[in-house]
Specification:
The complex is a heterodimer of chains A (63) and B (262). The radius of gyration of chain A is 13 Å and the shape is globular. Chain A contains 4 helices and no strands. The mean pLDDT of chain A is 91. Chain B is an alpha+beta fold and 262 residues long. Chain B has 2 domains: 107 residues, RNA polymerase, RBP11-like subunit (Gyrase A, domain 2, 2-Layer Sandwich), CATH 3.30.1360.10; 114 residues, DNA-directed RNA polymerase, insert domain (RNA Polymerase Alpha Subunit, Chain A, domain 2), CATH 2.170.120.12. A 4-stranded antiparallel β-sheet of chain B has the order 1-2-12-9. In chain B, a hairpin with a 2-residue loop joins strand 10 and strand 11. The two termini of chain B are 32 Å apart. The chains are: A mainly alpha (63), B alpha+beta (262). At the A-B interface, helix 4 of A face strand 7 of B.
Chain lengths: 63, 262
């Protein structure tokens, strides 16, 4: 799953991924989407841009 | 000492602290990061977990969810008379029951106190496949940021108040500094260089380097601080400042008492 908070500053990011993924998939500029979401620091922006959701891959295997 | 408010907007509070020292500014910053009591999930009892996520990982994810905290509503578990950390004065129970296929959200957590709940109902916690079940009881308690980042309730930073001096004798109004500034601090107005937005200056001195006639001087005033407090949402930012100061007052009070006993 995607992280809930920013690794560095602790800002809540968990509720922002849905909108971010959707709008970037539609072809919008990630820079603009990050600005609209109110993410000013580069720590939060990095987490949004670089985290990958591997849940569905992992879900196939047993614990 | 003086405090001037610049911005108070939802989760953000910006202010200028004047006639202070770097030591005092940093004491205040650290108190806001480490000493402000806020609620966070501290213990999780699993009844059932069929998901691909390990109990420990799931418990950690739950702990990272910021919780709304009522002001002075709860006591620290180690200061509570109950001694167990499980009574309604020092803890809140959040129960979660879900069955797949579903994405479990923070809004699915049912709190025993309506005032203590996730600040956003749409934080994904985990995904359940068809037929997978999840049942757990999470116990939230009051804590401080110095113990764990889950109890850190604000991102706080400060900088020296920027001081930009323009030597009008040397300035030729060529505009190279205006182009060089990444923050749009400077502006040319009627062939005269003006400081448009001094608070946005980050003291990077790109303008100083760009100036061919050495007409600009940029420095920070070490007695004046621009503070930015950004709450994670558990408490309002002004209360974070006040609670931090309160914790400092208590610490120094304890110190004075200890010295008097010598």
């Amino acid at each position: 799953m995607r992280p809930i908070r920013c690794f560095t500053c602790g800002k809540l990011l968990g509720d922002k991924f849905e909108e971010f993924d959707k709008r970037v998939k539609e072809g919008q500029d990630p820079k603009q989407v990050l600005d609209d979401l109110g993410l000013k620091r580069y720590c939060c922006r990095t987490v949004m841009l670089t985290s990958i959701d591997a849940t569905d891959e992992i879900a196939k295997f047993k614990r | 000492m003086e405090v001037e408010l610049i911005k108070h907007d939802g989760a953000e509070l910006h202010f200028i602290l004047s006639d202070a020292t770097p030591a005092l500014a940093n004491t205040l910053r650290r108190a806001m990061l480490e000493e402000v009591p806020v609620m966070a999930i501290d213990e999780v009892e699993f009844v059932r977990n069929d998901s691909a996520m390990y109990d420990e990982v799931l418990a950690h994810r739950l702990a990272m969810i910021p919780l709304k905290t009522p002001l002075r509503g709860y006591v620290f578990p180690d200061e509570c008379k109950c001694g167990t950390g499980r009574c309604p004065k020092c803890s809140v129970e959040l129960t979660l029951k879900a069955e797949g296929p579903a994405t479990v959200l923070s809004g699915d957590l049912k709190s025993s106190d309506e005032q203590v709940k996730p600040i956003s109902p749409s934080i994904p916690i985990l995904r359940l496949l068809d037929g997978q079940k999840l049942e757990l009881v999470a116990i939230a308690r009051l804590g401080r940021g110095k113990e764990h980042a889950k109890w850190q309730t604000a991102a706080v930073g400060y900088k020296y108040m920027p001081v930009i001096k323009i030597d009008e004798q040397k300035c030729t109004a060529c505009g190279k500094c205006v182009e060089a500034c990444p923050r749009g601090v400077l502006k040319l107005e009627n062939k005269e260089l003006k400081v448009e937005d001094v608070l946005s200056c980050t003291l990077c001195k790109a303008c100083v380097e760009a100036c061919p006639t050495e007409a600009i001087e940029v420095s920070g005033d070490p007695s004046k601080f621009v503070f930015k407090v950004e709450s994670t949402g558990g408490l309002p930012p002004d209360q974070i400042v006040l609670l931090a100061i309160e914790s400092l007052v208590k610490k120094f009070g304890d110190f004075v008492k200890a010295v008097k006993r010598l």
